[in-house]
Amino acid sequence: MSRRSAEPDGPRTRTRRSTSVTPTGVRSHTSPGRTSREPGASSTRGTPQLVVSERAEFAGPLAALAAGIPWVQYHWSVSQLHEYRDAGAEEFSAELHDMGFAGIPAPHQVLNPWPVSLWSPHASEYLGLRHVASSGEAPIPDWAFRTPDRPRICVTLGTVVPRATGNGASEFMLTMLDHLAALDVELVVAVDDDIAARWRRLPPAVLHAGRIPLGSVLPSCAAIIHHGGQGTALNAVAAGLPQLVLPWFDDQFDNGMMIAESGAGLMLSPPETTPEAVVQSCARLLEDEKHIDMAAALAREMALLPPPSAVVERLTDL
Questions:
Q1: Rounded to the nearest 5°, which phi and psi values hold at 226?
Q2: Which residue intervals make up region (Disordered) (predicted)?
Q3: Which residue, 140, 169, 200, 308, has fewest beta-carbon neighbours within 10 Å?
Q4: Is 39 in the same domain as 160?
């Protein structure tokens, strides 16, 4: 089982496209990926007084600048990752210049869903809010309500890694599952259904392989092995699970290191990730009370953060 070592180096350069900015939003005329997709289309429903957008999305701040209203950034990752805003400022330099800005100004407020003890120094002035799981239309399976006879381990590489790496992630996952099956555990694999359908026969220890609502399933698990993405990591924190993080790229390395440093989990770098190391690390998570206790402490800390409904009241004062 091998993986390429991928260091977080910021977003790739994107091709310029024709984009217009109006007081009601940004209208993009070619496929913009994750940046801008006609937020002004909903302007007929009322005039917004505040824009909230995530840190790698730029329709929000551009629309707020054009309308002269505050904007708030939802910050994912424990990393600062200034490269995203730098890339956005370069990509939309012409539009920003037309509005009289040399770059994308700092947001009026930044929201951080990570437990405060995991915040880096750059996040000291952020506003915390509690993570709320979003599972889309994935149904909750019956087995999620049953207490397993053996420790249940969730294994996932998220939705981006399996598609961005071709067959590499699938081969890695299948080899890992074969070795984990040697432990006396029950394995639940969270992966898109179309990818799971292409896999060869899975070991008998695998109870399920397909799309699942992590926020509803993880409370029935004893530990989780994952790639270090924010959504997966925070769902695991909320469930109080010890985590084994196997990062592939971008902020996943920093997220994994922060979880490991907190004592609530372990991280293996790409060169360290062998089938034997994964099995040994998983066994440590199940047996070491320190990891179990620290994971439970992080869950309690997250539960003390204000829910989004309470944070909205703070934002109306901006």
A1: -155, 180
A2: 1-47
A3: 200
A4: no
Q: How confident is the model at residue 33 (pLDDT cuts 50, 70, 90)?
A: very low
State how far the Cα of 53 lies from the Cα of 208, in Å rounded to an integer: 34
Q: What contacts 42, CB < 8 A, 6 or more positions away?
A: none
Give the number of domains in the chain.
Answer: 2
Domain enclosing residue 254, as ranges: 142-303
Q: Does residue 205 come out as left (phi exceeding 0), alpha (psi in the -120 to 50 range) or beta?
A: alpha
Q: What is the pLDDT of residues 106-128, one digit of tens each?
A: 899 999 999 999 998 888 889 99
Burial degree of 218 (CB within 10 A; 0-12, 13-18, 19+): buried
The CATH number of the domain holding residue 25 is: 3.40.50.2000
102 lies in the same domain as 157: no
In this prediction the pTM is: 0.81
Q: Does some domain include residue 153?
A: yes
Cα 308 from Cα 318, distance rounded (Å): 16
